[in-house]
Design a protein that fits this description.
Length: about 220
């Protein structure tokens, strides 16, 4: 059934863009349209990053394993809105002035953090195909852990941008922190289970050897 639900999710992911375009056509972008577009696309980039990261814990906690089929789509939408966010800066804000952009990256740390967040998403988007998953094997999972660093850089970018009113970026930081905490706890439990399995296997081997020596 989730296969038929995918087009619905796809269209829902386009709603923020549709809303932005609607407001643009009807002069609803406020006194500073460029700033409105920049903040809107930046927000949705972070939202999609965090929703993508929440798929795995949600799938495991609810045992709704079909949720994993939406993770790639959501991750690509994070990259899509991140691309719109960057395009707004490069085109509408800086008018493709490379010298000024390089100066921003070097001198304004929130720009540096934002560029880092986007750069980390590029290899994730390029290797999101099934062919890449087969080709990279276990290295694909290691590579795609970059999404956590991208989300962290995005949150830092937001905090450094707003400076004073950090309530909203801190909300994103809290969600990211909870997701990271889940990963750490899951890793510790997996290590404990693996150690117990090795210990049990060792005990069984000792018992079998002792039985053989008794005869």
């Amino acid at each position: 059934m989730h296969r038929y639900f995918k087009p619905v999710v796809f269209l829902a992911c386009l709603l923020p863009l549709g809303r932005l375009m609607w407001r643009g056509v009807h002069a609803g972008l406020g006194a500073n349209p460029i700033e409105f577009i920049t903040h809107s696309t930046g927000d949705w980039t972070l939202i999609f990053l965090l929703v993508t990261l929440s798929i795995t814990p949600l799938r495991k906690l609810t045992r709704q394993y079909w949720l994993i089929s939406f993770r790639r789509m959501l991750g690509l939408f994070a990259f899509f809105y991140g691309s719109l966010h960057l395009t707004t800066y490069v085109w509408l804000d800086k008018f493709f002035d490379v010298h000024e952009m390089l100066h921003d990256i070097a001198k304004r740390k929130f720009i540096t953090a934002g560029m880092t967040a986007f750069a980390l998403m590029i290899p994730l988007a390029l290797t999101s195909t099934k062919w890449s998953i087969r080709k990279l094997g276990k290295r694909w999972q290691v590579l795609h852990r970059l999404i956590y660093f991208s989300a962290a850089a995005g949150v830092i970018h937001y905090i450094w941008l707003v400076k004073a009113d950090v309530k909203k970026p801190l909300e994103y930081a809290f969600v990211l922190g909870m997701l990271l905490m889940y990963r750490v706890v899951a890793w510790l439990f997996a290590r404990k289970a693996m150690a117990k399995g090795v210990a049990d296997a060792g005990s069984q081997l000792i018992v079998r050897q002792s039985r053989r020596s008794a005869f």
